[in-house]
Design goal:
Elements lengths: L1 H9 L2 H24 L5 E7 L9 H12 L7 E6 L6 H4 L4 E5 L3 H9 E6 L14 E4 L19 H16 L4 E4 L2 H10 L11 E3 L7 H4 L2 H11 L6 E6 L7 E2 L3 E2 L7 H8 L3 E5 L18 E3 L6 H7 L2 E4 L4 H5 L6 E4 L3 H8 L12 E3 L5 H9 L6 H10 L7 H9 L13
Parallel strand pairs: 1-2, 1-4, 2-3, 4-5, 5-6, 6-7, 8-11, 8-13, 11-12, 13-14, 14-15
Antiparallel strand pairs: 9-10
Length: 423
């Protein structure tokens, strides 16, 4: 019954938009009265969250860990918000760290009190930033596919486009800093979030991506520990398969679903003696894919917290349109782009910011090519001029301790100065 009602409402974009606006107005008003007006901002309180509380990962994690290594920030209280805080007891054991449940009363209270917000996704709409608070937006990847205001193909038409753009714009209005890994990123995010129109095109900290620091700092002992945790047999090569989600795979009442675009059985027959596949779906994906028949060959790592751990143990990345390859390229290892629905994705869903022919690695569009491409990549992938040029454009600051740069620029030990582009 609930699904039928949702379908009926979703079929009428005017009704849907009206409901969304009314709900947002109510939540913002309630949050302002219950929290924002009641609690003063605390100068040395920082709220961290990653993927809206889904896990402990990405650039917020990197900035936090750099902060706890730096004694100058010992007297700062760090608050982490998670959907399942009981899984992060080790963090909670630290005297300087508080772990809370995302969307709980404590979450809204700390959001109202924290001097700094550090996140990699949009904050909840009902949370409004006070004038003396600082919002540090790390986002979660260099974009290949178009985002926000740059998406011109919406299956819901102009109404859906306005709704989505409003969400991006409302969050962007709150930003004080945006962390950028490259001039390319700065340019595209400025457009995607409509920052110039908002007077926010000067707020980039273009010093690299904090989450990529680990790819230059990890040890072989850390990599071996991850392999042991995942149960990867000694001597086997590792393929990380990390496809993205599709706008076309939305199921009302469920969310974004995913169907395999390949036959794992074919790959298992050829590669099971020498490889394992780490299969990681996008965090938007809501359906569970049954992998029991591939046990010992395919390991589901969709719920594994930090993808950086998966990068460092992988000999090969296989993806499609996900931005994961921008980060993985820092390791200078082989990449395969399996774009079996390329024409549909490009022309009917998202389109791209860059020419896919400039990507380093092998691009294939049919399943029949997959085994040969994997064999070729595992046999060796030279770090050639094309690959080097790619990193010069999209990862020019990697290895320079971006986490420290963010700390020193955005989380000041003295009164906060007006933000500006930091290059």
């Amino acid at each position: 019954m609930k699904k039928e009602i949702l379908k009926m409402l979703s079929a009428n974009p005017v009704v849907r938009e009206g409901c969304v606006r009314l709900r947002s107005f109510y939540r913002r008003t309630r949050n302002k009265l219950e929290y924002e007006r009641r609690y003063a901002t605390q100068e040395k309180l920082i709220l961290f969250e990653s993927y809206k509380g889904r896990n402990y990962s990405c650039s917020p994690k990197a900035v936090y860990e750099e902060m706890i290594r730096d004694g100058r920030y010992d007297d700062y209280k760090k608050v982490w918000a998670f959907e399942d805080p009981e899984n992060y007891r080790e963090l909670a054991e630290r005297e300087d760290t508080i772990v809370i449940r995302h969307r709980s009363k404590k979450y809204f209270r700390y959001a109202a009190q924290a001097k700094y917000w550090v996140t990699n996704s949009r904050m909840l709409d009902e949370i409004q930033k006070k004038k003396d608070q600082v919002y540090i937006q790390c986002w979660h990847g260099t974009p290949l596919k178009r985002l926000g205001f740059d998406v011109k193909v919406h299956k819901g038409g102009a109404q859906e486009e306005r709704e989505l753009n409003r969400e991006y714009e409302y969050d962007a209005m709150k930003y004080d800093y945006i962390i950028s890994p490259s001039p390319f990123y700065t340019e595209k995010i400025t457009s995607a979030f409509n920052l110039k129109a908002l007077g926010k095109d000067h707020i980039f900290v273009e010093k690299g991506y904090p989450r990529n620091d680990f790819l230059y700092q990890y040890t072989e002992e850390q990599a071996e520990a991850v392999k042991k945790k995942l149960g990867i047999p000694q001597g086997k090569k590792v393929i990380l398969y990390a496809p993205t989600w599709r706008d076309s795979m939305q199921e009302v009442g469920v969310g974004c679903t995913y169907s395999l675009g390949l036959d794992f059985a074919v790959l298992q027959e050829e590669f099971q003696d020498e490889c394992v596949i780490l299969f990681r779906t996008h965090y938007f994906i809501k359906n569970v894919i049954d992998l029991k028949q591939y046990e010992g060959f395919v390991i589901d790592v969709s719920e594994y917290g930090d993808i950086n751990d998966l990068y460092i143990v992988s000999d090969l990345l296989m993806t499609d349109y996900s931005s994961v390859f921008f980060d993985y390229a820092n390791l200078k290892r082989p990449i395969i782009y399996y774009m079996y629905d390329f024409e549909q994705y490009k022309n009917e869903m998202r389109d791209f910011y860059i020419d896919i022919d400039t990507l380093p690695g092998k691009l294939i569009k049919t399943e029949g090519e997959l085994s040969g491409a994997i064999r070729e990549a595992l046999d060796g992938c030279p770090y050639d001029e094309k690959y080097r040029h790619f990193n010069e454009i999209y990862n020019p600051h990697s290895g320079e301790n971006a986490s420290r740069a963010v700390l020193e620029t955005c989380i000041s030990l003295s009164p906060v100065v007006a933000p500006g582009n930091v290059v």
